[in-house]
Design goal:
The complex is a heterodimer of chains A (421) and B (140). Chain A is an alpha/beta fold. Chain A is 39% helix and 15% strand. Chain A contains 16 helices and 15 strands. The model of chain B has no long low-confidence stretch (mean pLDDT 93). Classes of the chains: A alpha/beta (421), B alpha/beta (140).
């Protein structure tokens, strides 16, 4: 071993706390060695992304751990599962899939976790705090936790996330170490008017460009004229985590580790400087759309899961209106947000508009869409990025208002913007 | 004989196959068909190619943390690449190899090259990776 285990860690590896802890410790120790970690760090919480059934290997792994009596050592939230537990049968989900997806969800529930079933755990009561070491899976969640909150996590791969949660430790490497959190690539917004920066598509498009251009560097955005809210930064994190592999990002004057340019780069100079212009934004919009023409079968919102604020914004647009009978309108969110929306009456208003709501999962992780849904429209960069490859369907990207208007008219209707469609 | 390059064995092992080389990163989730080994990210330049049994060279993986799972599923289904080459240590690829061994006793070598050496790789060339990280390219 390149690093020394503590007495307690060695005991875990020797199986003194049981076979699940032994398996988990063995996997964490091996990856720690590969990454050149010198020790393990204790964590305060975990977010488990291994919950999604994608095939029998993941299910076998989960059930093996569960059968060995695995329990998490720290509070652990659960990412989405591969079905909406109570409503999957209303959609095209094959029963055999549902049964395996449910088994996998139950295996992770049995380990003493908190069944949040959401990809936006930072918008729950379990939101971590600045400086905490955590083990979060799911790229958008890890990007948000690191960049927006200043908590410290790697983007933990499925299965490693649960191993870290079981032993309550992570390799002391990557973004857990301050030196590795310095920006090295400066992205300058050049002549992008405030009006454009205030458009609700802006942070999604910026995220797409950031992921595409930054490689595995840590980009630092300069030149922002607005003060983005949580949901804008969520769109930025989720889209950049789809189109690319950045570990984290900084925005000067916005994110906690970037009060100044110097702080963002930890006193170093940028290794590279790239300009982002209106031209890149227009190009990003085009790349997020694969469908031609105005035909539309479904509007889908909620990757990551819609927050209660986003639902409120949505009902301000749908009030007194109805979706066209030929277009389905789907919202994906968490059980907790759906519950709040139900209590506040927002859910009833969405139903009146003709919207359906799916919880626990999303269209990318459960095979729920009927065959006849061929063209989808969304305001979520992550949906737009993955729909063509994962679902073999075409997609149109637009803002939330574009999506609502198109659903009402029954055809794609993008408002002309100076800079986009 | 052919050209020999020396890689860092991240997860050591032996493998042989034709190279499939990408200059772009790839997310296996949404990018790799776990039932066939086909590259299915339609925005990726390897879209439509099959990586099963080949030595897949990627600068690094991107995006989703589900990449590891897809690769382990592909191992279980027998459609994983024979080995993986990346620039630097890609933790998602390394973890997939650790899990493939832990769960199925399957050896999936993962090696790392410097970026300039990585650029010398060309699709279609037959390659042999040895336990010590030596890669022999059969150029003729």
């Amino acid at each position: 071993m390149a690093f020394e285990l503590t007495v307690a860690e060695q005991a875990l590896l020797d199986g003194k706390d049981g076979p699940a802890q032994q398996t988990a410790m063995s996997i964490v120790a091996q990856i720690a060695e590969v990454q050149g970690a010198r020790k393990l760090l204790e964590i305060t919480q975990a977010h488990i992304d291994a919950t999604v059934y994608v095939g029998d290997a993941g299910l076998e792994f989960a059930e093996r751990l569960a059968a060995q009596g695995a329990k998490v050592a720290v509070p652990s939230t659960l990412n989405v599962g591969a079905i909406d537990v109570h409503h999957w049968h209303e959609w095209a989900v094959p029963p055999e899939w549902a049964s395996k997806a449910l088994r996998q969800m139950q295996a992770y529930e049995s380990m003493g976790t908190t069944p949040t079933w959401t990809c936006a755990p930072y918008q729950t009561v379990h939101r971590p705090k600045y400086g905490q070491h955590i083990a979060w899976g799911e790229s958008n969640a890890a990007l948000f936790a690191n960049s927006v909150i200043g908590a410290r996590t790697e983007c933990y791969a499925d299965m490693l996330d649960i191993c870290c949660a079981i032993i309550g430790r992570v390799p002391a490497t990557g973004l857990h170490l301050r030196a590795n959190r310095a920006g090295n690539l400066l992205l300058q917004l050049i002549e992008i008017p405030r009006k454009v920066q205030e458009d609700d598509t802006f942070f999604t498009l910026l995220g797409y460009i950031m992921g595409r251009t930054a490689g595995n560097n840590i980009p630092v955005v300069e030149g922002l004229l607005t003060e983005p809210d949580d949901d804008s930064l969520k769109a930025l994190a989720a889209t950049s985590g789809s189109s690319g592999g950045i570990p984290m990002f900084h925005i000067i004057g916005v994110t906690p580790e970037a009060p100044t340019r110097e702080a963002a780069f930890q006193g170093q100079s940028p290794e590279e400087i790239l300009d982002i212009t209106m031209e890149e934004l227009r190009h990003a919009w085009d790349e997020l759309t694969t469908a031609d023409g105005a035909h539309l079968d479904m509007v889908v919102l909620g990757s990551p899961h819609l927050s209660i604020d986003e639902i409120k914004r949505l009902i301000s647009m749908t009030e007194g209106k109805h979706a066209h009978p030929d277009v389905q309108f789907l919202v994906t969110t968490s059980r907790a947000v759906a519950h709040l929306a139900e209590q506040s009456g927002a859910m009833e208003r969405l139903r009146t508009f003709g919207a359906k709501v799916t919880v626990d999962t999303c269209i990318l992780t459960t095979p729920m869409l009927p065959e006849d849904v061929k063209v989808l429209m969304t305001n979520a960069g992550k949906f737009a990025y993955y729909i063509p490859g994962l679902l073999s369907r075409n997609v149109v990207f637009g803002g939330m208002e574009d999506c609502v208007r198109s659903a009402i008219e029954g055809r794609v209707h993008l408002e002309d913007r100076l800079w986009g469609k | 004989m052919g050209q020999v390059i020396y890689s860092r064995p991240v997860i050591p092992g032996q493998a042989e196959g034709n190279l499939l080389v990408s200059s772009e990163p790839l997310s296996f989730w949404g990018g790799y068909d776990q039932h066939s080994g086909e590259i299915i990210d339609r925005r990726h330049h390897l879209s439509g190619q099959n990586a099963s049994g080949r030595i897949l060279a990627l600068p690094f993986t991107r995006g989703s943390s589900t990449t590891t799972t897809i690769l382990v599923e592909a191992v279980r289904a027998g459609v994983a690449p024979a080995a993986l080459i990346s620039t630097g240590v890609d933790k998602f690829l390394a973890l997939a190899a650790i899990l493939a061994n832990e769960l199925y006793g399957h050896m999936l070598p993962v090696v790392a090259l410097q970026a300039d050496e990585f650029k010398e790789l060309t699709s279609g060339i037959h390659a042999i990776i040895c336990h010590d990280g030596t890669i022999t390219l059969k150029t003729s």
